Amino acid sequence: MPLISLRNVTKSFPPGRRGEPLVHAIDNVSLDIEAGEIYGIIGYSGAGKSTLVRLINALEKATSGDIIVDGHQVTNVPDRQLRTLRLDIGMIFQQFNLFSAKTVWNNVAYPLRVAGRTRDEIQARVTELLDFVGLADKASNYPEQLSGGQKQRVGIARALATSPKILLADEATSALDPETTHEVLRLLRRVNEELGITIVVITHEMDVIQTLATKVAVMDSGRIVEQGDVFDVFSNPREASSQRFVSTVVRGIPAPDELAALRERHRGRIVTFSFRDGDSSQASVFLELAAAGIEFELIYGGINDIRGRAFGHLTLALTGADSVIDTTLHHMAGRITVKELA
What we know:
This protein folds into two domains: about 5-245, 3-Layer(aba) Sandwich (Rossmann fold), CATH 3.40.50; about 255-340, Alpha-Beta Plaits, CATH 3.30.70. It contains twelve helices and 14 strands. The protein has helices at about 50-55, 80-85, 105-115, 120-130, 150-160, 180-195, 205-210, 230-235, 240-245, 255-265, 280-290, 320-330, and strands at about 5-15, 25-35, 40, 65-70, 70-75, 90-95, 165-170, 200-205, 215-220, 225-230, 270-275, 295-305, 310-320, 335-340. The strands form three sheets. A six-stranded mixed β-sheet has the order 6-7-8-3-9-10, with helices on both faces. A four-stranded antiparallel β-sheet has the order 2-1-4-5, covered by helices on one side. Helix 5 (about 150-160) packs parallel to helix 6 (about 180-195).
């Protein structure tokens, strides 16, 4: 059984004005997240990502459908039962949501006090967590004395305080600079690998999904339009929303205006070679072109790597005898996707 399962879930809000239709923030969503996964949910602003994560921990109640978390139904259950359920779900936020008047130590200790843990239990657990996130020397500091990355690490420690099975990260790196983002992502990977915690990452940043997640769902207008392994969705996106996201991290085949600009700057025939894990390598393509006496220049594109699996598109300008180019491209087409751009 999946750790988190949504079936035909809808969340509707009243219209802004009388006579307008209901607003479906979540529209008939079905989704399974297995224990131990890092599952990314990506979409542009207004896609419904944050509403979806609030449904998982019942901060919002679904209008219809079923949400099962660790074998427990979370829709339409009493608040007392929800409080118990939420002990197994930690959450970190874009703006950290720390208590400004509490020290780092007391921020992390807060959920343990609420859960009724003893003083000795709190002492041991906070010490353990501050060491885990690398902030043992900041225990007596206040949030205003910390950097953004340090604040988020406090947020992660606090979210882990009650030893949850699930960690929900809602745009957790959006307020951070790129270097600090990678530090936080490395920490989240440790949370998953060393503590065995399932992580659900809500983001609009494709780099976050590429770096951290194992599975991804793409949301658009309250619906999941595509889902699967991160490599499969990135390397072969089927839906327009997915293609737009992938284009932010992977340069694909040049658009018509880009192609026109390339033709002005480069002579020869322009050909795109699309690579996917298991195909011939870039190096073998370059060697084969050189062996055939074809001159080539890389003019567009790039190769991406997701957990050791490569994919991407390289557009080359080829110069040589047309018959030789034709024969070479035909030979390559059995091993790799080749497209000459008209």
